[in-house]
UniProtKB/TrEMBL annotation:
Its cofactor is Zn(2+). Keywords: Metal-binding, Zinc. The active site is at E408 (proton acceptor), Y482 (proton donor). It comes from the Bacteria. The lineage of its organism: Bacteria, Bacillati, Bacillota, Bacilli, Bacillales. It comes from Paenibacillus agri. This is M1 family metallopeptidase.
């Protein structure tokens, strides 16, 4: 997900810093390089699938179809869903046949499903209590509540299980939270076997403010169906005891699911157009005053769709040596109908570069939905093979348009294919995606991230491996999971070099493709590629919220007679690190005659002192003048002027004001 707080809330927070330090979150040095000429080289491959029957409303869909494409993932869950949208009542009615292939060994007696729309059921759900009914800068509109009801649950033999439905709250015991449900099975499922359930459900769509819902005649159906939780066999994400990974829907958390197959039939009013995960199995057809779509997707871990009568639809085929063939489909809000080239360009640049860096994009479609302005809460969000851009609020937006598209396409890797647990290790999605986004924005659009400014926004450094609701607040979550994690990756890159960093990320992305990697898996890749231990670094800055804080504490200067050269000066400069250990700290000393001396402190102790003998008085000392220490967020104590009496200084070639200008002119953090 893209946090617009970087454009709004944090920008406001940062105003003081920006004014004080000069600069902005992003900078535009020189002219923007044009996009590389990338045009479709061949048509996208056509979908390889044998779709099933079964799109009658109210009846359970059949679980007959079998994909003919080679499985890229372990397809644990298989969904066949028929859903009907009624915009008048803002409801979805669905019938779902789900087959769960037990990936572990022990008999399992209970299945668990996420009923995410229940996050919006009342003010007392865990999501609403934690978020205060606000996500990013979007607030829940009046009477914006929504919910999901299971109306029928049966085994494949027809035995009703509806009386066995039990809501559970493993994270906080909040009995008003019904986002996670337990279903006790009549008979246990053994490891390696499968079980099929048939569910009927209704969704009362919330008004859009947090990813899903309805706004006018626009509908974003994300997290809209009962979705089975992830069962982790021994070894998955390092677990030593197999079992369910169970979490409620939280104010800051996103999602975690198993890979599988989706065969989804969507009925909407005739004037509506539907965008969805996967590809349409056949042309939408009109039947009984409904327009019926059928989509299929495999090797994905979620399925989302959007519908509107206003979409301006356009699509292009695209391929490169690393992108086997994809149809990019745009579903634009009419306000952005003239901006399609910008969306296509950004999408092509992202697909092309990320496929080169992180492995081929293996899907045959990528859909981009541009919501209307009043559905901005649905914007800037990733789903498998479908992303949303920010809501269209102006006809000529700045490069945040491209940045959002690039970011969400980045998530096709760090979320889509590298399906981390976003409840527990959200940085593996957001920081990695933000890192990739910065690289591409710099390469394609010449927009540089102002990392020292961004670092100064991290006022509450916390571990990157916290469960999302354990951060001290939504701001702290954003600061760490998006910004600090990205700075850690940039800091690793600074230490190992860009080429090695590229090798690290490429190895990680390719090795854990279609799996559920953890932070420890990433650490192992870093260590294997660089052939050294990173345990101390990870312990300080990733498994904990370490932050170095360097300070020039004191400057003492006295005159000293130099044999042969006459009067000279001896300066003692005391420096300290008030935060986490950090090696190789550059320090620059500037003298009144304009010359400078640079030293590197090895950072082994908390404090040290430098002695300098010079012929002109010391003017100032500055730690990290080039702002290479990306994890330091408190820059205010990095610089200190020596106290020089004006009459002493007057004998030197530069005046104090001139010197200050010289030094301060470079003071951009
Ligand atoms: Zn994101």
């Amino acid at each position: 997900m893209k946090p617009p707080t970087f454009r709004t809330k944090i920008s406001i927070l940062a105003l003081a810093a920006l004014t004080l330090l000069g600069g902005s979150l992003w900078s535009y040095p020189g002219a923007s390089p044009a996009l590389a000429g990338m045009s479709a080289q061949k048509a996208a491959k056509s979908p390889a699938v044998s779709p099933g029957k079964g799109n009658a409303q109210q009846a359970f869909p059949e679980s007959a179809p079998v994909p003919v494409s080679e499985a890229l993932s372990q397809r644990v869950a298989e969904y066949h869903i028929d859903v009907k949208l009624d915009p008048e009542t803002a409801t979805l009615k669905g019938a779902e046949t789900v087959t769960w292939n037990h990936p572990g060994r022990k008999p399992v007696s209970d299945l668990y499903f996420h009923l995410y729309p229940n996050a919006f059921e009342s003010r007392n759900t865990t999501f609403m209590k934690e978020s205060g009914g606000e996500l990013r800068s979007d607030k829940m509109p009046d009477n914006g509540f929504g919910s999901m009801t299971l109306t029928d649950v049966r085994t494949s033999e027809g035995t009703s299980l509806i009386q066995r439905v039990q809501y559970v709250q493993p994270d906080d015991g909040n009995i008003n939270d019904r986002t996670l449900v337990k279903l006790h099975l009549p008979e246990p499922v053994n490891g390696g076997e499968s079980v099929t359930l048939k569910l009927q459900f209704e969704v009362k769509l919330p008004k859009v403010f947090a990813r899903m819902g309805i706004a006018g005649n626009f509908v974003m159906a994300g997290q809209w169906f009962p979705k089975i939780s992830v069962y982790e066999p021994v070894g998955t994400r390092g677990v030593t005891q197999e079992g369910w990974n169970l979490h409620q829907y939280h104010g800051t958390s996103e999602f975690y699911s198993d890979f599988g197959i989706y065969n989804v039939t969507i009925a909407v009013p005739p004037e509506y157009t539907v965008a969805a995960t996967g590809f349409p199995v056949k042309t939408a057809k009109l039947k009984q005053n409904q327009k019926i779509y059928q989509f299929y997707a495999d090797d994905v871990h979620d399925f989302a769709w959007a519908a509107s009568p206003d979409f301006v639809v356009t699509e292009e085929a695209f391929s490169t040596p690393e992108v086997p063939g994809v149809r990019i489909k745009l579903y634009l809000d009419p306000l952005h109908k003239d901006l399609k080239e910008r969306y296509f360009q950004a999408a092509k640049a992202a697909l092309s570069a990320f496929s080169k860096w992180y492995g081929p994009y293996p899907y045959s479609t990528l859909s981009i939905v541009v919501p209307p302005k009043d559905a901005n809460g649905a914007g800037g969000m990733e789903y498998p093979t479908l992303i949303t851009a920010f809501g269209a609020s102006e006809s000529s937006p700045d490069t945040s348009l491209e940045r959002t598209v690039v970011h969400e396409i980045g998530h096709q890797y760090f979320y889509g294919m590298l399906a981390s647990n976003e409840f527990e290790e959200a940085w593996l999605d957001e920081s990695f995606t933000s890192y990739a986004e910065d690289r591409l924005m710099e390469q394609e659009y010449g927009v540089m991230a102002n990392l020292p400014i961004q670092a100064s926004l991290v006022t509450s450094p916390q571990a990157l491996t916290l469960e999302t609701w354990k951060y001290s607040g939504a701001d702290a979550y954003t600061q760490n999971v998006y910004l600090r994690g990205k700075l850690v990756l940039k800091d690793i890159e600074r230490q190992v070099g860009t080429k090695t960093m590229d090798a690290i990320l490429s190895t990680y992305a390719n090795k854990y493709r279609f799996r559920h990697p953890t932070t420890r898996d990433f650490q192992k890749v870093v260590e294997n590629v660089t052939k050294k231990s990173w345990q101390n670094y990870f312990d300080l800055y990733i498994y904990d919220g370490g932050a170095p804080d360097f300070s020039i504490d004191d400057i003492q200067m006295r005159t000293k007679e130099n044999a042969g050269t006459g009067q000279g000066y001896e300066s003692i400069v005391k420096v300290s690190n008030r935060g986490s250990h950090y090696a190789n700290v550059p320090i620059k000393f500037t003298f009144s005659d304009g010359h400078t001396v640079e030293r590197v402190w090895n950072g082994d102790n908390k404090n040290t002192a430098f002695q300098l003998i010079s012929s002109s008085p010391l003017l100032s000392a500055e730690i990290d003048p080039q702002h290479t220490l990306l994890l330091e967020n408190k820059h205010i104590n990095n610089f200190r002027l020596a106290e020089i009496k004006p009459d002493t200084l007057s004998r030197w070639t530069l005046t104090l004001s001139k010197l200050l200008e010289t030094v301060l002119g470079t003071l951009v953090w």
